[in-house]
């Protein structure tokens, strides 16, 4: 074992590679009692590694099983692990795991909803987020204002923003009335508020924004807001191969949990919805005197809190984040566009 420290820790799920590099620079990581230096290599897997004084695991590559969750982020939740003001975060409803933690693959604005991926593999998260990988993100966007052919043409050709040139890979009209119009748009990077800023550059306001696809992973129509599902082995390996990581041959999902029966699928969907409702009730209920208001709750999957380590590819939490469930490449749109509103492909 001879790998860079930040890479080993990222793979073990202690953060993305960028986050860990920042921790090492700040002197918050030590190896065998000595403060680690950026670029230091871990030669011995039995070495004692600490972050902020807490011992953490540094597993060899073959010992780590990559897990990925698809989460339906509601509007209003923050993409941060902890909020000092006690507001809801996207981590509040995720299942608890031992010896690792969930890492978000990118972020969504507080007032943006839709598909957000989480993984236990920091290296996978880092590569998926990196601009050089050009991973497509598709959004359903509702805009307020007149949308002309010239505006759409500008958005596809490229617009100079404060942080550089930006453009939509694809723009497809999906219907609307009056000056409210809906489009599917595709970008292949994750700059801050990029979709909103592109439309604003054309004097058009985004009134609703929802991510429906990341790569070829789609937001499943059966998944309620605030619900999550674990990707099967085939989907995990699709993401890994997309960013040139070796494929996995194991999953934490239980192959005995068959998800082919429609009756079971309905039952599991209902369980997810009930769990989400219980979480909403706990968060919004007034706290009794002398006790703190609960702020977190965890979705329980039908396969248990941690699952079992098997060579399988079945759905977690009773669902599979299936391709083509919501959104999609090559769509033809809905209603015909109004006279001044084009349907444009790249």
UniProtKB/TrEMBL annotation:
<dbReference type="GO" id="GO:0003723">
    <property type="term" value="F:RNA binding"/>
</dbReference>
<dbReference type="InterPro" id="IPR018496">
    <property type="entry name" value="PsdUridine_synth_RsuA/RluB_CS"/>
</dbReference>
<dbReference type="InterPro" id="IPR000748">
    <property type="entry name" value="PsdUridine_synth_RsuA/RluB/E/F"/>
</dbReference>
<dbReference type="GO" id="GO:0160139">
    <property type="term" value="F:23S rRNA pseudouridine(2605) synthase activity"/>
</dbReference>
<feature type="compositionally biased region" description="Gly residues">
    <location>
        <begin position="319"/>
        <end position="333"/>
    </location>
</feature>
<dbReference type="GO" id="GO:0005829">
    <property type="term" value="C:cytosol"/>
</dbReference>
<dbReference type="InterPro" id="IPR002942">
    <property type="entry name" value="S4_RNA-bd"/>
</dbReference>
<dbReference type="InterPro" id="IPR036986">
    <property type="entry name" value="S4_RNA-bd_sf"/>
</dbReference>
<feature type="domain" description="RNA-binding S4">
    <location>
        <begin position="3"/>
        <end position="73"/>
    </location>
</feature>
<dbReference type="Pfam" id="PF00849">
    <property type="entry name" value="PseudoU_synth_2"/>
</dbReference>
<feature type="region of interest" description="Disordered">
    <location>
        <begin position="249"/>
        <end position="346"/>
    </location>
</feature>
<feature type="compositionally biased region" description="Polar residues">
    <location>
        <begin position="295"/>
        <end position="313"/>
    </location>
</feature>
<dbReference type="Pfam" id="PF01479">
    <property type="entry name" value="S4"/>
</dbReference>
<keyword id="KW-0698">rRNA processing</keyword>
<feature type="compositionally biased region" description="Basic residues">
    <location>
        <begin position="263"/>
        <end position="277"/>
    </location>
</feature>
<comment type="function">
    <text>Responsible for synthesis of pseudouridine from uracil-2605 in 23S ribosomal RNA.</text>
</comment>
<dbReference type="InterPro" id="IPR050343">
    <property type="entry name" value="RsuA_PseudoU_synthase"/>
</dbReference>
<dbReference type="GO" id="GO:0000455">
    <property type="term" value="P:enzyme-directed rRNA pseudouridine synthesis"/>
</dbReference>
<protein>
    <recommendedName>
        <fullName>Pseudouridine synthase</fullName>
        <ecNumber>5.4.99.-</ecNumber>
    </recommendedName>
</protein>
<dbReference type="InterPro" id="IPR020103">
    <property type="entry name" value="PsdUridine_synth_cat_dom_sf"/>
</dbReference>
<dbReference type="InterPro" id="IPR006145">
    <property type="entry name" value="PsdUridine_synth_RsuA/RluA"/>
</dbReference>
<keyword id="KW-0413">Isomerase</keyword>
<feature type="compositionally biased region" description="Basic and acidic residues">
    <location>
        <begin position="249"/>
        <end position="262"/>
    </location>
</feature>
<keyword id="KW-0694">RNA-binding</keyword>
<comment type="similarity">
    <text>Belongs to the pseudouridine synthase RsuA family.</text>
</comment>
């Amino acid at each position: 074992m001879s790998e860079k420290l930040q890479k080993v820790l990222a793979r073990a799920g202690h953060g993305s590679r960028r986050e860990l590099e920042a921790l090492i620079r700040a002197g918050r990581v030590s190896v065998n009692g000595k403060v680690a230096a950026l670029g230091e290599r871990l030669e011995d897997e039995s070495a004692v590694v600490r972050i902020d004084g807490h011992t953490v695991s540094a597993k060899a590559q073959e010992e780590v099983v990559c897990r990925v969750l698809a989460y339906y982020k509601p509007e209003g939740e923050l993409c941060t692990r902890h909020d000092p003001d006690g507001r809801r975060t996207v981590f509040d409803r995720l299942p608890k795991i031992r010896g690792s933690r969930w890492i978000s693959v990118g972020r969504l604005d507080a007032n943006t909803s839709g598909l957000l991926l989480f993984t236990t593999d920091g290296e996978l998260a880092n590569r998926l987020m990196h601009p050089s990988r050009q991973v497509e993100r598709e959004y359903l966007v509702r805009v307020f204002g007149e949308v002309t052919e010239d505006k759409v043409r500008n958005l596809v050709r490229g617009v100079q923003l404060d942080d550089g040139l930006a453009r939509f890979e694809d723009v497809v009209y999906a219907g609307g009335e009056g000056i409210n119009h809906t489009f599917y748009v595709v970008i292949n990077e994750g700059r801050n508020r990029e979709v909103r800023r592109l439309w604003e550059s054309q004097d058009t306001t985004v009134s609703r924004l929802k991510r429906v696809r990341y790569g070829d992973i789609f937001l499943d129509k059966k998944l309620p807001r605030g619900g999550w599902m674990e990707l099967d082995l085939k989907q995990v390996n699709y993401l890994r191969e997309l960013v040139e990581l070796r494929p996995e041959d194991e999953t934490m999902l239980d192959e005995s949990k068959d998800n082919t029966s429609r009756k079971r699928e309905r039952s599991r969907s209902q369980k997810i919805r009930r769990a989400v409702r219980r979480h909403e009730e706990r968060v919004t209920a007034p706290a009794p005197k002398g006790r703190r208001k609960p702020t977190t709750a965890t979705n329980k999957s039908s396969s248990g809190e941690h699952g079992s380590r098997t060579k399988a590819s079945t759905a977690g939490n009773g669902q599979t984040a299936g391709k083509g469930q919501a959104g999609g490449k090559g769509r033809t749109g809905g209603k015909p566009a109004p006279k001044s509103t084009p349907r444009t492909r790249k």
